[in-house]
Amino acid sequence: MVACLIGALPVPGLLLRVEWHRLLAGNDPLLDVRLFRNPVVALGFALAFLFYTMSAFFLTYDIYLQGVLHWSPLASLRGLRSCRSDSGSFRARC
């Protein structure tokens, strides 16, 4: 999971760079990068990126447990619960 997060870090920067060049060229960007001048908007986008990255990991891990390892849905739920500590935070042993 850590490798996925590290590998995904350049993606938002690449998106912002491409959209900034589209804006400078006079084209219509998909995302107006001037929004990121507001720190609240920038923080919101960063938190949304982290949230969806974590959600995608758990979906992919569940599909792996059921599709590749042929675990039952209940067993894969137990496997996903082992990734959580008692306080609800993520454990790195997953």
Give the biggest sheet. Answer: none
> How big is the Rg?
18 Å
Structural class: mainly alpha
Query: What percent of residues adopt helix (DSSP H or I)?
Result: 55-70%
Element-by-element helix/strand order: HHHH
Structural domain tally: 1
For the secondary structure, the number of strands is 0
Task: Please give the alpha-carbon distance between the first and last residues.
Answer: 8 Å
Number of helices: 4
Question: What is the 3D shape?
Answer: elongated
* Average pLDDT over all residues: 81
**pLDDT below 50 for ≥5 consecutive residues: which ranges?**
none
Strand content: under 5%
What do these coordinates show?
Helix 3 crosses helix 4 (73-81). This protein has one domain (2-81). The termini are close together. The protein has four helices and no strands. The protein is mainly alpha-helical. Helices cover 64% and strands 0% of the residues. The model has no long low-confidence stretch (mean pLDDT 81).
